[in-house]
């Protein structure tokens, strides 16, 4: 039995089921109770009556029991006979239903695959389709049916019914001739079978797809009448001369086996051994109704079948009818498409076309002649599909070269985007028409180039508006605007990498027609990648060879592109937008043809580039100043303002930002870099306006340029009048004093001040705990009051989360530099898509756009006054020391006569102090805290010197002496060893130097 190739359509009738087997009735048993009951009754009567006759009733029990058992067996046999009769009737009905359904199934198969004899007998209209590998009927046989019976067989009748349902008699045997067909037998029979195959193929395949070839003999003369003249070939090959035994062999078989040009090979032979190898199906014909079929790779026994044959007269008559129908329908006269089309063989205009109303170019050859596509008339956009090795890149090169040859650079320019590494468009890179080539090797450059196209659309809208026209083709000849063709190879890869670019392409697709921007989108599998907005505006469809039928149908509406041979690069199907797919062969360009176009337009001016170069890796101060000046000039031209006033750098930056954002900024805005705005086709000056933006936080990894950013802002602020800068980082003592001075609002510096803190997340880490908490609290207060206090704050940190939520949220603006990872940048609040691993120092993002900070030299820091030396020349001096013995030796070395205060020695020291003119008393914190009376007197009248920490300070100094502004802490010392506090009566503590050398102390004896 042959394998079923095609299933019939689904039926709506009820499924067939095997008749159920009725359960056999159980065999009746002997009724013992019925037999015993009369015996027991007779015994009871005998005992009751004493009559012997009553014992006769005992014999009725066995008789009734036997009669009952015999009747039950009779009823069981009757029930079984009735069930068998009903099941037999059910099998008869089942077989009738199987027969009817087999008739329907066979009729459906024959209607979908009519035999050659039926086609020749009925004539009619050929069913020419676009599949040149249509299956054919080679005979009839019993094949496997699609009908199935539900239920499990339990006996031979069930199995017979199941086998009958599965076997479809006299059904067509359908084969696919993709790998060729061999027919073996007598010459008359094999030729008749071959004629049947050829007529079926000629009936199913359109004339422009294949051509039939056969030996040049009278037996095959009818093949020449067929109207088929396509590129593919269906070749009939007589591998061994089909002549009678003993006749002289003929040599008319010029081709044996698979031909390079053949889509299908039908080989005829008298013996199977004479067939060429590699045929997919071989049929051995023994008699007109007897044959065997063997499929390559089956490995089983040959399948028996009745071969399908057709007479010579019938075949010739059908060929004449087919040719007449082709003549009526206009299908006659097609020529074969060449396998190679040099671009030099295509026509070119004698002079460059300067009209904007056309972008016509000859790209290849069809059966009707030269293939010409016009992005203006047929477009405005095109979709190109093709798998690897199909010639897709060569087709794009041919399109670019032909457009460049026909139109000058001022009329058409190209933006080429290649997401296969950039090598595809390298041959045309030197053409003056090419505005630029963008590759996936530089992802950021590719993204910004495509984003710039939106700005290009706005630019073209302004040009058309100024010219008073609505369409590109209506511009005057001298208008400085040409058409732009954007060619994107591997569009699918670009969209997968940059999802947001799909919206940009869709925007261009919807607005590009009137603005003169055309898209040529190429991909291996465009199906499902292009949105509805793109496909609706791209009527030009081109598909070179693709792997799947669905991809071909999605692009050109037919599966022909999936059937293009692998050895036909450049062969494709094109739909110009009229819904008619046409096969073509793309032109092949070479270096010489491209060079000729380049030389022809070598004197043409450079074309307008639709995007700017990326930001420089280093931005010098002069470049920023030039950008500021340009932005000021643009703003002045836009507003019609002409002034001779000299403006400061800050006001220049402010004007630039006002022009960029359409809103005013105060004059305090300071420029610090350039912002890349590819969607606006420009660079803007990045400026920070403290009054509007609030405190600024600069975040970035080590080496990202945080200090450079702070230096740029500091330099710009110093250039503004009436503005002072306070930079922390001059030592703990100076930083504390500067921070508290700003907090107290009693600073005598200019009315506006800038506080600069580098490494904010670590700058207070080494401070004593109380001072660290106080400094953070003071900074938080400054950040809250910055807009009203006149103090602006700019700080930097490596990681924002190290600052804590309370401090981090007080910054109104954040400048993101390079971060260690994309996730870290996103966590810090930056735009993760702008992250780049190899960003140079100073590169980052500002307000969601790429930024490069100016590499400005760091301004010199303001001089920080050194603390004065502690003065012991006072009426009395009380020294609280953490290192009493060392400090006692220092005092003696200075010529002083200090009195040592020990714990419990207050009375002796008090007496000594009373006797001295200028007493100097030294002791540790415990000694002073235990000397209550002496401490009280010295605290009120003596100069206090504290050489130690807060414990020593609080042991003797009054509470008011330790208040610095609003904070109850004395000034912070850089180092408690060389520095100390000096507290005069009624004054707050002052930071002093303890000593550096013995002569450094200010000892003024006699004062």
From TrEMBL:
- Keyword Phosphoprotein assigned to the entry: answer is no
The membrane-spanning stretches of this chain are 30-48, 54-72
Query: Which CDD domains did the record assign?
Result: TrwB_TraG_TraD_VirD4 (cd01127)
Q: Which residues bind ATP?
A: 386-393
Q: What is this protein called?
A: S-DNA-T family DNA segregation ATPase FtsK/SpoIIIE
Per UniProt, the keywords (alphabetical) are:
ATP-binding, Membrane, Nucleotide-binding, Transmembrane, Transmembrane helix
Kindly give the InterPro entries that the UniProt entry links to this protein: AAA+_ATPase, FtsK/SpoIIIE/SftA, FtsK_dom, P-loop_NTPase
Q: Which residues form the FtsK domain?
A: 367-553
Q: Which Gene Ontology molecular-function terms are recorded?
A: ATP binding; DNA binding
Q: Where is this region: Disordered?
A: 639-672
Q: Which organism is it from?
A: Agromyces terreus
Q: Does the keyword Ribosomal protein apply?
A: no
Task: Note the PROSITE patterns from the entry.
Answer: FTSK (PS50901)
One Pfam family of this chain: FtsK_SpoIIIE
């Amino acid at each position: 039995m042959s394998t079923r190739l095609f299933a019939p359509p689904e039926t709506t009738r009820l499924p067939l089921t095997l008749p159920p087997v009725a359960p056999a009735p159980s065999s009746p048993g002997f009724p013992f109770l019925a037999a015993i009951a009369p015996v027991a009754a007779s015994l009871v009567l005998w005992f009751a009556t004493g009559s012997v006759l009553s014992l006769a009733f005992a014999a009725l029990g066995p008789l009734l029991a036997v009669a009952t058992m015999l009747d039950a067996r009779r009823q069981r046999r009757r029930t079984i006979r009735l069930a068998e009769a009903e099941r037999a009737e059910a099998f008869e009905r089942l077989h009738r239903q199987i027969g009817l359904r087999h008739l329907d199934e066979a009729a459906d198969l024959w209607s979908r695959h009519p035999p050659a004899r039926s086609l020749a007998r009925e004539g009619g209209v050929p069913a020419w389709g676009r599949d040149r590998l249509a299956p054919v009927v080679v005979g009839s046989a019993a094949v496997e049916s699609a009908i199935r019976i539900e239920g499990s067989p339990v006996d031979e009748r069930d199995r017979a019914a199941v086998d009958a349902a599965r076997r479809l008699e006299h059904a067509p045997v359908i084969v696919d001739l993709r790998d060729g067909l061999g027919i073996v037998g007598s010459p008359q029979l094999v030729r008749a079978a071959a004629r049947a195959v050829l007529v079926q193929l000629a009936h199913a395949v359109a004339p422009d797809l294949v051509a039939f070839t056969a030996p040049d003999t009278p037996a095959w003369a009818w093949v020449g009448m067929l109207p088929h003249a396509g590129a593919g070939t269906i070749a009939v090959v007589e591998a061994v001369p089909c002549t009678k035994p003993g006749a002289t062999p003929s040599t008319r078989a010029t081709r044996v086996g698979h031909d390079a040009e053949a889509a299908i090979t039908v080989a005829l032979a008298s013996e199977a051994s004479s067939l060429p190898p590699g045929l997919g199906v071989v049929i051995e014909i023994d008699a007109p109704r007897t044959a065997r079929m063997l499929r390559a790779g089956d490995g089983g026994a040959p399948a028996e079948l009745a071969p399908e044959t057709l007479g010579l007269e019938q075949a010739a008559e059908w060929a004449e009818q087919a040719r007449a129908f082709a003549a009526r329908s206009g299908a006659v006269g097609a020529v074969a498409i060449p396998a190679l089309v040099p671009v030099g063989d295509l026509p070119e205009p004698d002079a460059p076309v300067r009209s904007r109303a056309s972008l016509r170019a000859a790209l290849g050859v069809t059966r009707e002649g030269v293939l010409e596509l016009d992005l203006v008339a047929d477009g405005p956009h095109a979709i190109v599909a093709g798998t690897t090795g199909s010639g897709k890149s060569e087709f794009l090169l041919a399109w670019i070269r032909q457009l460049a040859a026909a139109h000058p650079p001022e009329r058409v320019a190209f933006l080429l985007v290649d997401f296969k590494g950039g090598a595809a468009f390298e041959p045309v890179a030197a053409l003056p028409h090419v505005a630029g080539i963008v590759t996936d090797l530089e992802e950021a450059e590719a993204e910004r180039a495509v984003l710039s196209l939106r700005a290009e659309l706005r630019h073209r809208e302004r040009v058309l508006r100024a010219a008073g026209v609505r369409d590109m083709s209506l511009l005057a000849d001298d208008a400085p605007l040409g058409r732009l063709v954007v060619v994107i190879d591997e569009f699918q890869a670009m969209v997968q990498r940059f999802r947001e670019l799909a919206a940009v392409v869709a925007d261009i697709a919807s607005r590009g027609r009137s603005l003169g921007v055309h898209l040529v989108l190429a991909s291996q599998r465009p199906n499902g990648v292009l949105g509805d907005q793109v496909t609706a505006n791209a009527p030009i469809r081109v598909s070179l060879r693709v792997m799947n039928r669905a991809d071909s149908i999605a692009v050109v509406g037919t599966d022909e592109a999936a059937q293009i041979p692998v050895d036909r690069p450049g062969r494709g199907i094109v739909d110009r937008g009229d819904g008619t797919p046409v096969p073509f062969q793309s032109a092949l360009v070479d270096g010489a043809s491209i060079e000729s176009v380049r030389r022809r337009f070598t004197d043409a001016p450079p074309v307008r580039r639709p995007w700017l170069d990326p930001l420089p890796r280093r931005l010098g101060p002069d470049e920023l100043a030039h950008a500021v000046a340009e932005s000021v000039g643009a703003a002045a031209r836009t507003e019609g303002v002409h002034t001779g006033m000299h403006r400061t750098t800050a006001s220049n930056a402010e004007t630039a930002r006002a022009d960029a954002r359409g809103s005013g900024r105060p004059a305090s805005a300071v420029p610090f870099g350039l912002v890349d705005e590819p969607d606006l086709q420009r660079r803007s000056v990045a400026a920070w306006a403290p009054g509007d933006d609030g405190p600024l936080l600069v975040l970035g990894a080590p080496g990202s340029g945080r200090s450079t950013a702070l230096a740029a802002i500091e330099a710009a602020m110093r250039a503004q009048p009436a503005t002072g800068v306070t930079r922390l980082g001059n030592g703990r003592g100076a930083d504390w004093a500067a921070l508290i001075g700003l907090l107290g609002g009693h600073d005598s510096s200019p009315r506006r001040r800038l506080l600069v803190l580098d490494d904010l997340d670590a700058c207070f880490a080494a401070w004593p705990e109380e001072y660290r908490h106080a400094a953070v609290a003071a900074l938080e207060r400054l950040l809250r009051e910055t807009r009203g206090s006149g103090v602006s704050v700019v700080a930097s940190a490596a990681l924002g989360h190290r600052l804590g939520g309370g401090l981090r949220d007080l910054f109104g603006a954040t400048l993101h530099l390079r971060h260690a990872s994309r996730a870290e940048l996103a966590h810090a609040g930056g735009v993760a898509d702008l992250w780049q691993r190899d960003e140079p120092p100073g590169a980052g993002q500002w307000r969601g756009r790429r930024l490069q900070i100016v590499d400005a030299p760091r301004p010199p820091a303001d001089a920080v006054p050194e603390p004065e030396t502690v003065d012991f020349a006072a009426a009395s001096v009380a020294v609280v020391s953490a290192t009493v013995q060392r400090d006692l030796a220092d005092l003696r070395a200075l010529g002083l006569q200090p009195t040592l205060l020990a714990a419990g020695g207050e009375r002796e020291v008090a007496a000594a102090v009373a006797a001295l003119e200028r007493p100097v008393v030294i002791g540790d914190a415990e000694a002073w805290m235990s000397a209550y009376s002496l401490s009280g007197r010295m605290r009120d009248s003596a100069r206090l010197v504290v050489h130690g920490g807060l414990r020593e300070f609080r042991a003797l100094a009054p509470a008011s002496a330790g208040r610095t502004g609003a904070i109850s802490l004395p000034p912070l010392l850089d180092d408690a060893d060389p520095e100390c506090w000096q507290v005069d009566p009624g004054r707050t503590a002052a930071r002093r130097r303890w000593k550096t050398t013995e002569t450094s102390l200010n000892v003024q004896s006699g004062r």
